[in-house]
Amino acid sequence: MPTAAKVLIDGPSELIFDYSVPKEVTALPGCRVRVPLRNKSATGTILSVAENGTVDFELKPINSLIDPEPLITEKLIQLAQWMATYYGTPLEQIMRSLLPGAVRQETHSAKTRQVAELVQIPDEETLEKLSRRASRQHAILQLLKDSGPIPITELGGASVRPSVKSLQEAGYITVRNEEVRRDPDAGDEFLESKPHKLNEGQGAAYKAICHAIDASLDRKTGTEDPASSPKPILLHGVTGSGKTEVYLQAAQHCLDRGKSVLVLVPEIALTPQTVQHFKSRFSALQDQVAVLHSHLSQGERFDEWHRIRKGEAKVVVGARSAIFAPLPRPGLIIVDEEHENTYKQENPPKYQGRDLAVVRAHLERCPVILGSATPSLESFQNAQSGKYDLVGLPERADGQSLPLIRIVDMRTETRKHKGGPTILSDRLRMDMEKKLEEGQQVILFLNRRGFARSLQCPSCGHVCECQHCTVPLTYHRTEERLICHLCGYQSIVPRACPKCQDRSILLQGYGTQKVEEVLRKVFPRSRLARLDADTARKKNAVRDILRDFRACRIDILLGTQMIAKGLDFPNVTLAGILNADLSLHAPDFRAGERTFQLLTQVAGRSGRGEMEGEVVIQTFTPHSPSVQFARHHDYEGFADQEFDFRRQFDFPPFSHAALLTSKCSHERLAEFTLQNLHQRLSKDLPSGIELGVPNPAPTPKAHGLFRFQLLLKSTNPRTLSRHVQKVLAATTLPEEVTIVFDMDAYDFG
Ligand code: ADP
Ligand code: ZN
Fold first, then answer.
1. CA pair distance 53, 69, nearest whole angstrom
2. For range 514-522, the mean pLDDT
3. Which of the listed residues 109, 151, 166, 614 has the most CB atoms within 10 Å of its CB?
């Protein structure tokens, strides 16, 4: 029976057509093809292949295959289709993420070089003749005899070509083409690392994971229900509990069983240590690790990608988009620091990499480990409800204690030092002096990126909040108003603090650059480095700073959340958080959670070596739950009270929150379009969907476009997504307006 292939055509039109498959062509899902389209030729990707028995008209045949083999696996096509419905994104756009330009463009190909190889040694007499008359040919033969095949380039440039040619014609040597890998880490050496002996907690976690791996393998061949996938495992281990070692040994177990491993990290540049650990364990002897990140050249990406596809690279480490790595048979997926927001892709196609890891693991029927010291409340809720298995590592790896955390109330500090905002409290300054004198290192953290400013009273700490959402109101200068970014509630800007009547109520804020200035004055002899988005722009800056810090060539490392990700420096005994309130007062229901995570993570950088660690947290709201629970290393306590708040207002994890945004250079048009959509959405609104009202975005104008947004909540994300897609499809939108739908939104800015 003839077969037909469903082909997704490249390009923005989202066209899917059936084509017949000529007998001589082996067409499989994931193959790239050239097909006829309206008297022209187009390229596309095969989504599925089926027997074509029922089609009663003649299909046009596929012209040709672009690559002989499928570029992505069937499971990845399924993942793409899941994303298309869940996130309401065109499949073609998703496919472009799955098949990066470096791989799909026909201009890219494997790099080859010519290699000369000895076929036979001429007899003594000929050799002797050569050595006299053609010494170069003689030398080449000797070289090939002594050291085996050699690339022509290494025999010595273009000048040897004639000699090589003569030898080739005489039948003494052959020249063949050989693929060369463009290795992004060429030149880097990785010392082999031996497994640590696991402590008791690690051992139990390791066993649980191995059990899940084995069960998933047995299940596939056994008689059990094939639809059942192993439960995701939430590995909740305190900072320094040795989660990496558990990942490494679990990965080894998986490799021993002939399966490959996919590891997601929040950001390659900021987690060089994790990458290094995997390289050292699995690549020191034989290069089994592929690293995917945004700084690869097109050629390197092409090669790494094909190495993964062919199963040559058995361990893949990468940032969120590595979830699309074409591993043929993953047996384990690991998401390190699963709470990190960097897993959320904010450019289209929008997706949450951690969530995709869970979906892909389900499709592949393999276990997935979500690891963190501060799990996202979404994952923790899933563990509590029994959807995930929970494995805990409550102690640090070799018995160190968690650092002692001190809270400094900045309200009293400000009173002490009249005038200007205080950056360093006396307590923090004295602790720094002591540690620096003892030759130990200090990490200072200030989160100054991307948050709208809120109004706070410096004397009582009061922050102006929304009556309906209990999130801080954001100051809008143009309207001279305080506005709630979730529900749209507005209030006037008070002249004095509504709570204590102090008239010095002001907008919060200073940044890392200002801090650097201050530090250079206070600690003129200490070596200081600043790591934030500005300083990281320089090539290799992050790597160099972290390397110098590790080598103790830097005493104080000052930075934004860039320094909060999994760094393990044994000589750091003090971590200072300059203003814990910045993230607390972001216009976002996750503000409390993010603050707790940041405080716990930054605190966790301290005291990881032999010496005990200390932490100083400066805050205007010392009694906020985020600060208090972080101080006592009490994740469960924090989660409990935060759950109460989320439940009360139907926020995630008790619902899915989606954001619909309109953007346009004409303010009225952006507003009107969203109001129009709001009206249409409210008609036949499926039950269980909570529809907010359109409002200006916290950043009301960005890149020259005015932005309005609308919050939707539902316990059923698919119904929500479907309803929005239906309304969008039935609405003719003004050409100038861009509408963005963000399912499971994280960025409310
Ligand atoms: P986490 O990621 O959980 O914060 P790490 O994986 O960075 O912690 O481990 C913290 C430190 O403990 C590392 O320096 C690591 O080498 C060490 N470590 C891990 N497991 C063990 C063990 N079983 N015995 C001794 N030290 C260990
Ligand atoms: Zn509100």
1. 25
2. 88
3. 614
What homologous superfamily does CATH list for 404-451+510-646? P-loop containing nucleotide triphosphate hydrolases (3.40.50.300)
Domain 200-393 has CATH 3.40.50.300: yes
User: 656-743: which CATH topology?
Assistant: Alpha-Beta Plaits (3.30.70)
Kindly report the protein residue whose alpha carbon is nearest to atom 10 of ligand 1: 240
Helix H, strand E, coil C: the string for 551-569 is CCCCCEEEECHHHCCCCCC
Interval 50-68 mean pLDDT: 80
Which of 199, 244, 265 maximizes ligand 1 atoms within 8 Å of its Cβ, making it the mutation to test the pocket? 244
What is the whole-number distance in angstroms between the Cα of residue 74 and the centre of ligand 1? 37
Ligand closest to CA 483: 2
The Å distance, Cα 568 to ligand 1 centre, comes to: 9
Protein residue with its CA nearest to atom 13 in ligand 1: 242
pLDDT in tens, 285-300: 678 999 998 778 888 8
Quick check: CB of 312 below 6 Å from ligand 1?
no
Question: Is 550's C-beta closer than 6 angstroms to any atom of ligand 1?
Answer: no
Q: Does the Cβ of 713 fall within 6 Å of ligand 1? A: no
Q: How large is the average pLDDT for residues 555-564?
A: 90
Residues carrying CATH 3.30.70.600, the chain? 656-743
CB of 27 closer than 8 Å to CB of 62:
yes
Q: Is 371 in the pocket of ligand 1 (CB under 6 A)?
A: no
Cβ of 374 below 6 Å from ligand 1: no
Mean pLDDT in the chain? 89
Q: pLDDT at residue 330 above 60? A: yes
Distances, alpha carbon 61 to alpha carbons 66, 295, 503, in Å: 14, 39, 77
Indicate which atom in ligand 1 lies nearest the CA of residue 199.
23
**Domain 3-104 -> CATH class:** alpha beta
pLDDT at 104 over 60: yes
CATH class of the domain whose range is 111-180: mainly alpha
Confidence of residue 451 (pLDDT cuts 50, 70, 90): very low
Asked if the bond preceding 653 is cis, omega within 30° of 0, the reply is yes
- Nearest listed ligand to the Cα of residue 568: 1
Asked if omega into 349 is within 30° of 0 (cis), the reply is yes
Domain limits, CATH 1.10.10, in the chain: 111-180
Starting from the CA of residue 203, give the closest ligand: 1
Q: How confident is the model at residue 240 (pLDDT cuts 50, 70, 90)?
A: very high
Residue in the structure block whose two tokens are 């039109």: 13
d(CA 377, CA 354): 13
Q: Pick the residue whose CA is nearest to atom 5 on ligand 1.
A: 242
Q: How far is the CA of 589 from the centre of ligand 2 (A)?
A: 10
> pLDDT tens-digit profile of 375-416?
999 999 999 999 999 999 999 998 889 999 999 999 888 788
Question: For atom 4 of ligand 1, which residue has the closest CA?
Answer: 240
**What is the band of 469 on the pLDDT scale with cuts at 50, 70, 90?**
low
Q: Indicate the pLDDT class of residue 223, thresholds 50, 70 and 90.
A: very low
HEC readout, 422-445: CCCCHHHHHHHHHHHHCCCEEEEE
- Looking at the chain, the whole-number percentage of residues with pLDDT higher than 70 is 93
Quickly count: other Cβ atoms within 10 Å of residue 215's Cβ.
Answer: 15
pLDDT at 271: 79
Q: Ligand 1 centre from 274 Cα, in Å?
A: 11
DSSP run (H or E) holding 475:
strand 474-476
- Residue 418's identity, in one-letter code, is K
Q: Quick one: which H or E segment has residue 168?
A: helix 161-169
Question: What is the position in ligand 1's atom list of the atom closest to the CA of 273?
Answer: 7
pLDDT tens-digit profile of 726-743? 999 999 999 999 999 999
Would you say residue 689 has pLDDT above 60? yes
Give the global pTM: 0.86
Ligand nearest to the CA of 398: 1
In the chain, CATH 3.40.1440.60 covers: 3-104
Start and end residues for every CATH 3.40.50.300 domain found in the chain: 200-393, 404-451+510-646
